[in-house]
Amino acid sequence: MINLLKKDIRACFKTDFKMIIKLLVGIVVFSTILMPFATVAIPLFLSYIFIIKSFQIDELNKCDYFFNSMPIDKEDIVYSKYILSTIIILISLIFSYIYSYVIKSIWYVDLLTIESILIILNLLLLLVSITLPIIFKYGYNKSYIAINLITGITLVIVIFYSMQPIGIMRSSDGGAKLLYNSLKLFLTTGVCIVIYLASMYISTKIYTKKEIAN
């Protein structure tokens, strides 16, 4: 599994001209037109780009057929993708935090809070939990439209709910309600992690039963 993960990381983070252009255009758009939501949309954008790229590369190289001819457990392939997704999510959140710090230093605008980080994390976990079983079931090409539709809906949800914790903090008269909402958010994060693990289990069952012709 370690070798599979290394393969995914090398392929995923190997930059090319098209990837650089996508990243630059995305960051510029989020830094100008969508700046109020930049620290929310950027981690979704980065996670989508790199996670989907790993499946796209595998599809282009017909890795399923190659893996099928090798003594590689299908479970390890699934575990590798979920570990890669976890790494990408964490890196995207760290990048978003650094980006928010830079924007705050320049414009004195605080775009990111602990609450909004947790909301982003929860939605990313849910997004991956929904999309990966679909990809393992139908493959990247057949599930491309569905994945983009789900990602687009998630982006709208992220933008809509990203500022909700800030509103809660400003409208609370005391610390009790703020504490309650914080505990509820942490509990939600725990639930999302459980869903994420359940998704990995489902993907494992799907992929192990999937027939791959040589």
Describe this structure in words.
The two termini are 22 Å apart. Helix 5 (74-107) packs antiparallel against helix 9. The protein is mainly α and 214 residues long. The protein has helices spanning 2-13, 17-32, 38-60, 63-68, 74-107, 114-138, 140-161, 164-171, 175-209. The chain is globular, with a radius of gyration of 19 Å. The chain is built from nine helices and no strands.
Considering the chains and any ligands shown, give keywords for the structure:
single chain, 214 residues, mainly alpha
Short description:
The protein is mostly helical. Helix content is 85%, strand content 0%.
Percent of residues in beta strands?
Answer: under 5%
| CA-based gyration radius | 19 Å
**SSE succession:** HHHHHHHHH
Could you list the spans in which at least 5 consecutive residues all have pLDDT below 50?
Answer: 165-174
Instruction: Determine the structural class based on helices, strands and strand pairing.
Output: mainly alpha
| Helix content range | over 70%
What characteristic shape results from the CA principal axes?
globular
Largest beta-sheet characterization: none
The rounded distance between the terminal residues' Cα atoms is 22 Å
Mean pLDDT: 79
Q: How many H/I helical runs?
A: 9
Number of strands: 0
List the helices and strands and how they pair.
Blueprint: H1 2-13, H2 17-32, H3 38-60, H4 63-68, H5 74-107, H6 114-138, H7 140-161, H8 164-171, H9 175-209
